[in-house]
Amino acid sequence: MKEYYCRNCFRTYTEEVCPSCGAKGSLAGSEDPIFFMEAGYFLSPRVEDFLTEKGIPFLKKGELGAGLTTRIGLSSEHNHYFIPLKAYKDFEKELILFTALFSLIFSYYPSDKLLFIFSKVQQLHCK
C-alpha cells in the first residue's frame, strides 16, 4: 500500500488526497518531517531531553520567531517538534507512550486529542 505525505500538515496517509487539508500529496520519503507535538517554553526541555535520550533526531521550530520572542519574552514561545518519517516509525511505540504521559501529566491536550492518544496506547498493548 502506498503512503503519501502532506507538506502542509506534516503527516502521512494512504489516500491520494490529504484527509485534513485536501491537498494532493507526494509519495512519502524516509526523511519527510512528521509533526510530533508542540510544547511551551517551560515544557520544551522535557521533550528535547526525551528525544535526545532515545537518540531520536528532531527539528524544533518556534512558532513566534526570534524577533517577536525577544520582544515579548521567551515564556511566550511555543515550539513545534518534527521527526523524520523513518525515525517516527522506528520509535513509534515510545513516541506514542511519551505523548500520552506528557499530555496526562501536563493536561496539555483537549479531551478529544487525549482520547485519540490513549486509543493508540491501547492498540499498542493489544499487539
Jot down its keywords:
127 residues, alpha+beta, three-stranded antiparallel beta sheet, 5 helices, 6 strands
Descriptive notes:
This protein starts with a strand and ends with a helix. α4 (92-106) packs antiparallel against α5. The protein has helices spanning 44-54, 66-72, 85-90, 92-106, 111-126, and strands spanning 4-6, 11-13, 26-27, 33-40, 59-62, 78-84. A 3-stranded antiparallel sheet has the order 2-1-3, with no helix packed on it. Strands 4-6-5 form a 3-stranded antiparallel sheet. β1 (4-6) and β2 form a beta hairpin. By secondary structure, it is α+β, with helices and mostly antiparallel strands. It has 5 helices and 6 strands; from the N terminus they run ββββαβαβααα.
The class by helix and strand makeup works out as alpha+beta
- The whole-number mean of residue pLDDT values reads 80
Radius of gyration: 16 Å
Largest sheet: 3 strands, antiparallel
Give me the side-by-side strand order of the main sheet.
2-1-3
**What percentage of amino acids are in beta strands?**
15-25%
Shape: globular
Total of DSSP H or I helical runs spanning 4+ residues:
5
Amino-to-carboxy terminus distance: 21 Å
Q: State the helical fraction.
A: 40-55%
- Low-confidence region ranges: none
Question: TL;DR?
Answer:
This protein is of the alpha+beta class and 127 residues long. The chain contains five helices and six strands; from the N terminus they run E-E-E-E-H-E-H-E-H-H-H.
Give the helices and strands, then pairings.
Layout: E1 4-6, E2 11-13, E3 26-27, E4 33-40, H1 44-54, E5 59-62, H2 66-72, E6 78-84, H3 85-90, H4 92-106, H5 111-126
Antiparallel strand pairs: 1-2, 1-3, 4-6, 5-6
